[in-house]
Prior knowledge:
By secondary structure, the chain is an alpha/beta fold. 56% of the residues lie in helices and 14% in strands.
Amino acid sequence: MRNIVLIGFMGTGKSTVGRRLAQSLAWNFADTDCEIGEVTKLSVSEIFRRHGETRFRSEERIVVDRLSQEDKLVIATGGGTVLNPVNWEALAKNGIIISLYATLEVILNRIGHKNDRPLLKSSREEIEKLWLVRQPYYEKADFTVDTTLKTIDEVVSEILAQLGRMAIHEFSRVAKN
Ligand code: S3P
């Protein structure tokens, strides 16, 4: 039995979609950022501010290894998680990797006003660079869902349908309902 791993840039809906997808499948759900928060007792912003990104990435590495070993778990990753090939390998070994995409315009509309993502504190040009540089990583997923003009439910339905098309027994049963 495998996990379902959601990857993609910040603001593509990984956590919201992941939680809803897990409900539909009656699977458990985990969010790497929340897990890191529980372990460190600090928010993502606090870790970045007090200890720097390097510390955050090493906490993320440990969390990824732990979650990768579970079964029937929907995992929402952080936007930078799969840039580390070791994380990718661990997640892909025991999971289907699904990328959620959105245009930068929509992403900034969704989360540009929020204050909880240290990497969004830079200029629009910098964020665009980051978004562009990361697309090739996300494109390596087993499949991608464009969330740009879709509701959460529509994204979840599309994932279930795609999993069904992949003829994975457990999923096709759910997708037909
Ligand atoms: C990050 C994305 C964030 C969080 C951290 C770093 C990134 O998660 O892990 O701020 O490198 O893109 P979300 O993608 O859930 O916002």
